[in-house]
Write a structure and sequence with these properties.
Elements lengths: L5 E6 L1 H4 L13 H12 L5 E4 L7 H14 L4 E5 L2 H4 L6 H17 L3 E5 L15 H18 L2 E3 L22 H15 L20 H25 L11 E6 L6
């Protein structure tokens, strides 16, 4: 197992950790959990920074976060983005792919181990997501190809049915919940060789009873009112959920491991 000294995570709301709530603090998320896995598995201290900000598209991440991350000279980095691009009808898949490759390659040129993951198909959870399925599948294939060229480690979550289980997703249908974040982190820790339970991250949950028609209608009405309409409102007015948000860990700082 490699020993890591500086881990830097860049990305959007997923990497920031939205919907993995921590009482009295900002969201945790899979990147924080990966840092904890790594720090607990080695005797040397790990410094960790998380520059991710919700709502950011890939070009914004490349322009704003990537240069700052490079300057920290990480030996472990995670680059996960693209959700805020592919949900838009004007998504430039070629430009998106090029930006991801630049970031992956830049970290690899430093000698860093780089992590990423593919996106699961949420069309069965969020019916409106079905319209972006072709774009999502094409994006995932680009991520696999780019990562193979750069030597980036890929958690290919899209290949596992559990990744689309609604019990791992927040009611907004866009972010993982705490259990989802925990499983993503466990899968990435397995790629790094710091997980004690191989394959546990994609173990299936007990069978789920299908919702009744009344439950489906109620869930749709709630989702439209609570999540979709506010998102559309931000799009129309040119606002972002990340406006005024700053990184939760803007500088490298030690990861505290219980008992040390």
């Amino acid at each position: 197992m490699s020993v890591f000294h500086r881990y830097v995570a860049i990305g959007d709301s997923s990497t920031e950790g939205l919907e993995d709530a921590v009482p009295g603090a900002r969201h945790r998320g899979w990147a924080d959990r990966v840092a904890a896995h790594v720090a607990a598995a080695q005797s040397e201290p790990l410094l960790y920074a998380n520059l991710a900000i919700r709502g950011r598209k890939t070009r914004e991440i490349r322009d704003e976060q990537y240069p700052r991350a490079l300057a920290m000279r990480p030996d472990l980095a995670s680059v996960f983005c693209g959700t805020n691009d592919i949900i838009r009808s004007n998504c430039d898949l070629d430009g998106l792919s090029a930006d991801i490759e630049v970031m992956q390659r830049g970290f690899r040129d430093l000698g860093a181990t780089v992590l990423t993951l593919t996106m699961p198909d949420l069309g069965d959870i969020a019916p409106l997501a079905r319209r972006v399925r072709p774009r999502l599948f094409a994006f995932n294939e680009r991520v696999r190809e780019i990562s193979a060229r750069t030597g980036t480690l890929v958690l290919d979550a899209a290949l596992y049915p559990i990744a689309s289980d609604p019990r791992l997703w927040h009611p907004d249908r866009l972010h993982a919940n705490s259990e989802g974040h925990r499983r993503i982190a466990a899968g990435l820790a397995e790629l790094l060789g710091v997980s004690a339970s191989a394959g546990a991250w994609h173990a299936p949950l007990p069978p789920l009873l299908p919702p009744t028609l009344v439950q489906r209608i109620g869930a749709e009405l709630h989702w439209w009112g609570r999540y979709l309409l506010p998102w559309l409102g931000r799009r129309i007015t040119g606002r972002s959920s990340g406006d005024g948000i700053t990184p939760k860990r803007p500088a490298l700082a030690p990861v505290v491991v219980a008992g040390r």
